[in-house]
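Subject: design request, 182 residues
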């Protein structure tokens, strides 16, 4: 603690024996021990109070952060954020062929950060032959919604095309269309 060697302790003990005297030395050592114990106890209490104050300061900071998050969520829900309506708009836009706004931006969010940029597209690996037909042509949007009978006819046509493309498939194990085996 004080970084004293045994020789120094013996020297202090000898001086204390001469100055205090052999009769009062035990009382003086007991008093020094009690004072040291009180100092240690006070230091421990100070350290525990300091640690508790630090924990409370950290809890106050966390509490402020949580209240800020609660306020931002409350303002987002009060502003009309409706996930069901958002999904409904996405589905309706996909069916109609006209893009609808998918989601409302939350306060503080950057709406452009989620959209991919046009410069992020990868370069094609091989040169494209301009005379070759395109690999994929997007369907043209329908003027009207297709009827149930038109959808059934298109489905039947696709099944017939698939059956012609795979002649080795046996009809008894056709699980794709019925979902069960014969």
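Subject: RE: design request

Done. Sequence follows.
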């Amino acid at each position: 603690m004080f970084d004293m060697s045994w020789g120094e302790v013996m020297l202090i003990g000898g001086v204390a024996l001469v100055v205090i005297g052999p009769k009062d030395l035990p009382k003086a050592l007991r008093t020094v021990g009690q004072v040291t114990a009180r100092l240690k106890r006070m230091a421990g209490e100070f350290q525990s109070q300091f640690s508790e104050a630090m924990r409370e300061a950290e809890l106050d900071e966390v509490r402020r952060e949580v209240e800020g998050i609660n306020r931002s969520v409350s303002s987002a829900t009060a502003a009309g954020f409706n996930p069901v309506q958002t999904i409904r708009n996405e589905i309706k836009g996909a069916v109609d062929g006209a893009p609808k706004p998918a989601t409302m931006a939350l306060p503080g969010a950057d709406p452009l950060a989620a959209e991919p940029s046009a410069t992020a597209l990868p370069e094609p690996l091989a040169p494209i032959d301009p005379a070759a037909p395109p690999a994929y042509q997007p369907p043209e949007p329908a003027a009207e919604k297709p009827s149930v009978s038109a959808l059934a006819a298109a489905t039947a046509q696709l099944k017939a095309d698939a059956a012609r493309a795979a002649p080795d498939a046996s009809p008894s194990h056709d699980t794709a269309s019925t979902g069960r085996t014969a």
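DSSP finds five helices and no strands in the chain.
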